[in-house]
Amino acid sequence: MYKALDSNGCTVAAKEIDKDHNSRGALREIDNANKQRKLNHENIVKILDVNNEEDEMWMFLEYCDGGDLNTYSRNHFQELKNNQLRVMKETAKGLHFLHKLRIAHRDIKPENILIQTKSGSPQVKLTDFGVSKFHSEDATCSAMHTNLGTHTYKAPEFWNVDQEDGSITYYKNVDVYALGLTYLAILQAK
Ligand SMILES: Nc1ncnc2c1ncn2[C@@H]1O[C@H](COP(=O)(O)OP(=O)(O)O)[C@@H](O)[C@H]1O
Ligand SMILES: [Mg+2]
Fold first, then answer.
1. CATH 3.30.200.20 residue ranges in the chain?
2. Residue 24 has pLDDT above 90, yes or no
3. Angle, to 10 degrees, between the axis of helix 174-187 and the axis of helix 84-100?
4. What are the Cα distances from residue 159, in Å, to 113, 156, 165, 166, 169?
5. 174 in contact with ligand 1, CB cutoff 6 A
6. Would you say residue 26 has pLDDT above 90?
7. Average pLDDT, whole number, for the chain?
8. How many angstroms separate the CA atoms of 145 and 89, rounded?
């Protein structure tokens, strides 16, 4: 992640996506959703541009000056304590918005929750859709089977392996489990 300036001199965040990274598919979908103006929400990081070339892919995002939640907690501990409920509520609002669009984030954790302090109080922006799953509107089934995300934030379903074929099945509510663990991290921040 790089801090960069756009042509108007505004600070933006620039993220380089590996050529062979398996998140490219998800990022293309997020780019499409963004272009259709579907991803417009105050608690979702704004995607300013995506530059998708043969061997390089870059995403340009609104820059969040508080960094991610862990960084913010380290640097602005008292502000986080004073705004715990607001931060928790806004994280849930961002996630609810994604779920309404049939997007499972699949990597909810403090490192993927950014803080913007422009307005004076910390505002939450969910980010990192690298392993997100976009379900099409007409999909009858939104079950997922790929084991990914961050180990310590995984819901129990990830360990419920089918005896016959070794598969796992889970739904977007694994994000709610990860949200609960994220809340614990916020409440226990020292
Ligand atoms: N828009 C942004 N503004 C400020 N910091 C950011 C921004 N996007 C990412 N970061 C920082 O970079 C880290 C990694 O970014 P992320 O998009 O989660 O990529 P990764 O795929 O490496 O996890 C975040 O945890 C956060 O600390
Ligand atoms: Mg991340």
1. 2-62
2. no
3. 170
4. 25, 6, 14, 10, 10
5. no
6. no
7. 92
8. 29
Tell me the CA–centroid distance for residue 158 and ligand 1, in Å: 25
Cα separation of 46 and 125, whole Å? 8
Query: Helices H, strands E: what count in the chain?
Result: 5, 9
Q: Which of 5, 15, 39, 124 to mutate to test the pocket of ligand 1 (most atoms within 8 A of CB)?
A: 15
d(CA 126, ligand 2 centre) in Å: 10
Mean pLDDT, rounded, for 80-87: 97
Q: How far apart are CA 158 and CA 148, in angstroms?
A: 9
Q: How far is the CA of 69 from the centre of ligand 1 (A)?
A: 10
2-62: CATH architecture: 2-Layer Sandwich (3.30)
**pLDDT value, residue 188:** 93
- CATH class held by domain 67-187: mainly alpha
Residue nearest to atom 25 of ligand 1 (CA): 111
Residues 122-153: tens digit of each pLDDT: 999 999 988 899 888 877 789 999 999 999 99
Token pair of 190, please? 């020292």
Mean pLDDT (whole number) for 94-108: 96
Q: Quick count: other Cβ atoms within 10 Å of Cβ 188?
A: 7
